[in-house]
């Protein structure tokens, strides 16, 4: 059972809390636990059992699709305070696609297990609505990702990605391998490698093993 | 005002009807009208005003995204009895992307105008719920479209598309131009043209101006 502070935190982010009756609050409290996932752990896939709904406390998750021949396309990434509903997609009838969810870094989260979530979801329309609203936000994320993949030239996509990463990190260093970048933006490592080299030749960045230092942010912005 | 038969039809498909109170039913009845769109008419775009929710009676709609340089990618198509909610996306806060909606053929529909829908949506959680559920179904359609575009080889995509069209038409004839096919499957006309010629050489189909006759359905199925 979570302590009082944790429960307050959780109730703020599962904003159906106020619409639960006492019995439902009881179900909620008895079925939410703190979980930890190591970096790289796959917590949801087409084969795995349905986990439930997650509220991320620290770390982050990456949600992606996987082709039969092993190609990955990242749909979106979740950060602390984000709620992950697709890890409970088995009870959402209208979701007919499969996603994979990995911990991007060591991640702590609160997990409302699938049994409790299923029960609350079926008997309380506000819980159902919460799940839908969250899913539709992710729909918007997915549309954004696909518009980038389908419509943007690759140099723009890579520039946007690098600037986003830069803004997150609060430094001029991005600690990602070419392989990771390729996965995140749905491309091949060779293509990323070629474009990073081109950026390097333009004096935009310097590469070293597993990290990239942006030396001219304005030039990078200018690409977009 | 719709007649009794029409209202029964409409109430069946807007399945929040039973959850409306008498006043809300009144709002609904006074704000739903029959509309007609000519083939090719653009009824929703990023610039246009928000129409409201549509229930298609006959004909069909195509929902697509458009790049800055004019490339189209079809997200999904709607048929009779389908409800179109993205034509009211302005009141759905979580939808942050723009789509375009065209009439694919002469189309008759029932339109619940945006003012009434907005009012019902904000005061009745079941109307809100209906809009979300419908949107999430479309999310699944979109994921399907994107998985095809991103993961399937082009011959498979085209074969699946032709078989779908064949099943709809109940004949061995598909009356679509290469240009239309390219739009529907999010490709370029030249690519479609090349692949259709390859299929023709394999004895799968015959082409004439604006239409395609499938001569060997089994060979086509075999491609998938």
From TrEMBL, chains A, B:
Annotated keywords: DNA-binding, Transcription, Transcription regulation
Matching Pfam families:
cNMP_binding, HTH_Crp_2
Among InterPro entries, the record links this protein to:
cNMP-bd_dom, cNMP-bd_dom_sf, Env_Response_Regulators, HTH_CRP, RmlC-like_jellyroll, WH-like_DNA-bd_sf, WH_DNA-bd_sf
Q: Name one GO molecular function term.
A: DNA-binding transcription factor activity
Q: Which GO terms describe its cellular component?
A: cytosol
Q: Where is the HTH crp-type domain?
A: 152-218
Q: Does the keyword Transcription apply?
A: yes
Q: Which Gene3D superfamilies match?
A: Jelly Rolls (2.60.120.10), Winged helix-like DNA-binding domain superfamily/Winged helix DNA-binding domain (1.10.10.10)
Q: Which PANTHER family match?
A: CRP FAMILY TRANSCRIPTIONAL REGULATORY PROTEIN (PTHR24567), REGULATORY PROTEIN YEIL (PTHR24567:SF26)
Q: What is this protein called?
A: CRP/FNR family transcriptional regulator, anaerobic regulatory protein
Q: Which organism is it from?
A: Parasporobacterium paucivorans DSM 15970
